[in-house]
Amino acid sequence: MLLFHRQSKSPFMVNPYPYFSWTPQNDRFTLFHRNHGIHDGPGGKVYTNMYDLLLDAVFTSMWKLGFPDVEIAVGEVGWPSAGDPGMTQTTVDNARWHNLNILKKAGSGVGTPLMPGHRFETFIFALFNENLKSGSIAERNFGLFRPDFSPVYDIGIMRGQSNIDYVCNNGINCGPIREGGPCFDPNTVRSHAAYLMNFYYQAKGYQSYNCDFSGTGVVTFSDPSKLDSH
């Protein structure tokens, strides 16, 4: 299979769920909170979150099989916002925090200890809760939205589109993010919003209040993609 991916130049898709590795003892490590980290003795690497560890475990296996050049993509990853009685880890706050950090990792280009500077194509599971799905309550509650289209929580997707609409309706040329424009790719709400928010801030005279966007933007003098999650 890996040979096929190499020959077709297609990514090997994996589902690295920190959720399934959660225990009360590794709560902070699994949920991207500040922790002492786990030291990989033989490799000398330090891991501060379960997500990086899972991705590097896949990479190590591929490397041992002779396929370190095959790209890795995240086919699905997520965290449930509700669960059966006693499942204290399945909360809206945990789901939101986990997925916010997954998105931050996906867009930062920081990579992992064994794959520094790598950017992974990532798909969040899931867009909608699956209210008709059999099994545990947790299995039905991985969605960002309920079946009636109301949001379970927001990880910036809706706010990003609102920011795009605001900028485009207030005198800023949004042509560069339209199809065929120089800033169309990557074609994501997050990337388009980031470009337009920055452009708006500059066009309006570099005033900090023009970078706030209802608390979704902030002026920074360092590259935010290099900052660690806390």
From TrEMBL:
PROSITE patterns on file: GLYCOSYL_HYDROL_F17
Pfam families noted in UniProt: Glyco_hydro_17 (PF00332), X8 (PF07983)
GO terms, molecular function: hydrolase activity, hydrolyzing O-glycosyl compounds
GO biological process: carbohydrate metabolic process
Record's keyword terms, sorted: Disulfide bond, Glycosidase, Hydrolase, Signal
InterPro entries, A to Z: GH, Glyco_hydro_17, Glyco_hydro_17_plant, X8
Similarity-based family: Belongs to the glycosyl hydrolase 17 family.
Protein name: X8 domain-containing protein
Species assigned in the record: Rhododendron griersonianum
Origin organism lineage: Eukaryota, Viridiplantae, Streptophyta, Embryophyta, Tracheophyta
